[in-house]
Amino acid sequence: MNSIPKIVLDNPFRILGVFANSSKKEIVANQGKANAFLKVGRAVEYPLDLKALMPHVNRTVDTFSQATAHLTIAKEQLKYAQFWFLKMTPLDDVAFNHLYAGNWQQAIEIWDKKNCVSSLQNKVVTNFITNNFDQAVNTAEDLYDQFSDDFLKAADTTGTLNLDKDDLIHSFIDTLCAEYEPKRIYDIVFSDDWKDYLGSKTVKPLIDRINAAIKVAKDVDSDDANANLSAGIKLQNSTKKDFAELKKLLPSGDMQLESVADKLGLQILQCAINYYNNSDHDVAAENAMTLQKEASKIVMGEMAKDRCKDTLKVLEKIIAELPPKEVRKEHKAVMAEIEKIIKKSPSISTADSLLNNCKPHIQAIKTKLGSTNDHYLKLSTIVVSVAMRMVVGDVNEAQENAHDEIESCFSSYDRNRIVEKLKTTLRAAWNVTLSMDDYDIESDFKSHYNENRSALKSMCEDLNISTYKPITRTTTSTTSSSTRTTTIPRIRTAAAVSTPKPSTATSSLSSSYSSSSNYYSGSSSSSSSSSSRSYDEEDHYVAAIIIVEIIWAIISVANKEGSIFLVGGIGMWLFPLNYISMHIINWIIKKMNS
Q: What is the CA radius of gyration of the chain?
């Protein structure tokens, strides 16, 4: 401490220039002297002003009158006596002579020679004056522990107070706490009685401040994520010092301490929960975990600890399933695309859109994490699985529709139109599948993917749809410095068209990807198409030849005319020859194109 307590500087006994145990006669004498001097404007001084050790006393008629009034009340007189000098022994006279001269060390040495109420009390006041705060308080402990009754006899000049040792201690502490933090005093005392009383004086303000901070955090809108995060952090920081001091003051297991600890910890935890439940921040779980850990350090009750543990388990699971921090932006973008797509009806166009929109994000994740990273492969597989489900749904529906329409259709033109429509769907499906090939997928999903891919490829080949992936070639124009890209596809010769009947799903996605859906059948092949052929232009041509030959035969027989018979006979030979020639020409063209 670097200042004299105000209770010493402005002590009424000092203003009156008397000792705490001075007689009424001495007080009246000093009053008379002061009044006479003050009336003529002269300064009033007394030996106990201790000019060498303390600041000047500003005495006026009013201050003198107020000092006198304070000492007329027995309890007030005792309070001020606890912070002023006593004169009771010859040693006191010697010590005060040194003190008047400013030699306080010598005065202390003299009082150290005899352990009595006046020597201890005078050392208390001298230590306060000389800024030895700790020593002053510790000396007061000794004084009231040994000589409380003697002090009451000396200080209670009226003899009207019925007080004991505890009353003196409490009075002394209360007066000091009016000027200094109770914790400051608590840290230097040794007596359990003093610590207990100081603890009660210290605990309540600490608890009040902590409860006030808890209320501020509790009043924050629970739906406001950022406000709850800020409130939790502020609550933790603003109460840290007070709670640490509270734990020092109260013993382990104290119910009051446990109650405050649980209220504080659970409110911090609630802020963390409110923040996470309403936040879309990439690191929301980690931020909530930080607050949760602080709450776990604070709570003391078993129920509060269990709640913190439950929340910890949930957050740990969430964090374990989160993507790496460096790719969370891309991960979030991919999942947003998937969420938009899965709400739509299955279609090849939506699958194509998904693949195109996700590709730059997937590639960015691959660049940051590497092609073998588990998170990258899992997310890439999810995109492919969702896209495949969309394609499969569209193709299966197209197959069903084509099969039903062909069975109820007799027009060759309509049959051709239906087949061409199916071929358009399959061609689009194959193009999207080629886009899927650019994605890396997990080994567990690869066999399923390849199975469906092979089935689609077989269906395309049965309908003479090219399944070769286009080759991209870059050429430079001779007339311009710009670069252009030319796509050169491989073309396969058309063959007999077959329309395989659609089948049901061959498998479903695992729970780690997406929900199950229909997939193409892998049973379609060229051999099966030859045994189960549909109507096409070739079939129509053969049918026409047979019908014409039958008509000509009937006409020839009916008319029995040589010329007609001759024409009919030539016709009957000509059509088969034409048919055979057509097959030979088609065979040659196929060989040239294959």
A: 52
Percent of the chain with pLDDT over 70: 78
Residues 217 and 82 in one domain: no
pLDDT at 547: 67
Q: Is residue 191 part of a domain?
A: no
DSSP string for residues in 389-440? HHHHHHHHHHHHHHHHHHHT---HHHHHHHHHHHHHHHHHHHHHHHHHTTS-
Collapse the DSSP code of 472 into the 3-class scheme (helix H, G, I; strand E, B; otherwise coil) and give the result. strand
> How many CB atoms lie under 10 A from the CB of residue 398?
20
The contacts found for 133-136 with CB under 8 angstroms, 24 or more apart, are 133/1, 133/188, 134/188
As a whole number of angstroms, the distance between CA 377 and CA 396 comes to: 28
Q: Determine contact, residues 75/161, Cβ cutoff 8 Å.
A: yes
Phi, psi of 474, rounded to the nearest 5 degrees:
-105, 125
Distance, CA of 376 to CA of 490 (rounded, Å) = 33
Mark residue 556 as left, alpha or beta (left: phi above 0; alpha: psi -120 to 50; beta: remaining): alpha
In this prediction, residue 505 carries a pLDDT of: 28
d(CA 364, CA 353): 18
Tokens read off for 465: 């749809």
How many CA atoms lie less than 13 Å away from 394 in the CB half-sphere?
Answer: 27
Element (H, E) at 32: helix 24-39
* CB-CB neighbours of 425 under 10 Å: 18
Q: Which domain holds residue 222?
A: 198-322
Please name every residue paired with 473 in a beta bridge, in sequence order, or none if there are none. 486
481 and 349 share a domain? yes
Dihedral angle sign, alpha carbons of residues 395, 400, 401, 405 = positive
32/307 Cα distance (integer angstroms):
74
Span 94-132, pLDDT tens digits: 999 999 999 999 999 999 999 999 999 999 999 999 999
| One domain for residues 486 and 545 | no
Measured distance CA(83)–CA(134) in Å, rounded: 15
Q: How confident is the model at residue 528 (pLDDT cuts 50, 70, 90)?
A: very low
**pLDDT, tens digit (0-9, with 9 covering 90-100), for 397-407:** 888 888 888 77
Side-chain half-sphere exposure of 53, counting CA atoms within 13 A: 24
Clarify whether residues 100 and 166 are in a common domain.
yes
Helices assigned H by DSSP within 71-130: 74-81, 90-100, 104-112, 117-129
CA–CA separation, 268 and 288 (whole Å)? 10
Angle at 98 between CA 94 and CA 102, to 5 degrees: 160
Compute the distance between CA of residue 172 and CA of residue 170 in angstroms, rounded to an integer: 5
3-state SS assignment for residue 119: helix
The total of other beta-carbon atoms located within 10 Å of residue 3's CB is: 10
Q: Which two tokens stand for residue 200?
A: 């009660």
- Give the whole-angstrom CA distance, residue 516 versus residue 88: 101
Do 243 and 260 lie in one domain? The reply is yes
